[in-house]
């Protein structure tokens, strides 16, 4: 704690010194010193904290790809983020922007406007599972046993709502847009997923599309193919929201895409 | 300061309580309470700080688009971020990933492999200008007078290097990839930009492409058209790095794209 406070103070002092200098800064081309990353071993305890902030930013901005686990040194950082207020504020901030966008649209009355929602950590929150000590917010690898237990968790149909996304759902329905839920979850969980979605407040939808076990492509390719089919059928994808970049890149991504935060896992599978 | 510390402590306690509970969390489906965003007026002084974190994340993830200024309430937050260590760590983290990617490539010896670098706040850092009190890290609108002064700043050819990007430049050159600098800066600044790039260590390049004053498209469209021309000429765009989403979306974006942080302005112009 003392180290973190010292780092805080240091940053504040740095910021204050520079921003209150009062000179036109272009007279000081050397004002901004490049501070180079130091090897962790030599740089004291505060650096891993910064590295975890940087790590999360590289993940959320799609700079870091195909990663398999949260680095062990960032476990408590991610735990604090996901269980604290900031994750919720970050979700609400994305949804605020999405709702403002929805309200700016003129939706035709032909019933062909849709909004695509991912399910896991978008419509519903898997935090009860990922906060298990043996999963530890993505630090631990999901081996076959944990994968099976995650599937059981899905089948309970008691996965809690991600509150911000429900707020967006209500806004799109009110605007005359229909919801399409599109998930990489197995088709075998269709009944549980439908029951779960209804139980938390997603009352109705145009389609609930799960991944057939026969499909061997990545989720990204699967979702692109489904969206292509929807467009061919005459639907207009007004928006598309997911917690994974795989949800919102590829073909026919939609008129506007929204990325919810998720520093716990990477959805390339 | 006291408020910020109290907020820190609060988050730590929240995090510790939840993550150390020791129960398999799926036995507590109500464990994770949705915390809703409160109106600022009723929520105490710590909330604007969280909102600025959320605001920055929505900007960096391309959720927030077409914004014109840093919100006034986030001015000191952005000032602290940009002048402190975190911005530098965040840049270095992106470049670490990019260099790892470069080292994974097998580059043919035909000299057709290129890497596209944006200039402003990518190859060079405009912080000396944006830290001016009358610009205040993007809080103030760049009116015609300030735009003119920014242009003078560019013409000094003394814009400092963004150290992380120079490190990436050295890695791509070493790997046999040629640099192409592609900027929305006016062609009239070509001499100053070239002199500036060389002065800080970008010794050589395949092309330095500036926007002709006759081009009336957005930077995003201009850069896409240039990349299309490069691909038609037989170049392979192995990578592409910029601080703006407009640098790395569109057509022929490159085999892999990298987004440096920049919470000071939005490059849609």
UniProtKB/TrEMBL annotation, chains A, B:
Give a single Pfam family match.
Acid_phosphat_B
Specify whether Glycoprotein is a keyword of the entry: yes
| Organism superkingdom | Eukaryota
InterPro entries annotated for this entry? Acid_phosphat_B-like (IPR005519), APS1/VSP (IPR014403), HAD-like_sf (IPR036412), HAD_sf (IPR023214)
Q: Which residues form the signal peptide?
A: 1-21
Kindly state which keywords UniProt assigns to this record, in alphabetical order.
Glycoprotein, Signal, Storage protein
Q: Does the keyword Signal apply?
A: yes
State one molecular function term (GO): nutrient reservoir activity
Q: Which family does it belong to?
A: Belongs to the APS1/VSP family.
**Listed PANTHER family:** ACID PHOSPHATASE-LIKE PROTEIN, VEGETATIVE STORAGE PROTEIN 1-RELATED
Q: What does this protein do?
A: May function as somatic storage protein during early seedling development.
What is the recorded name of this protein? Acid phosphatase 1-like isoform X1
Give the organism the record lists. Coffea arabica (Arabian coffee)
The gene name on file is LOC113739608
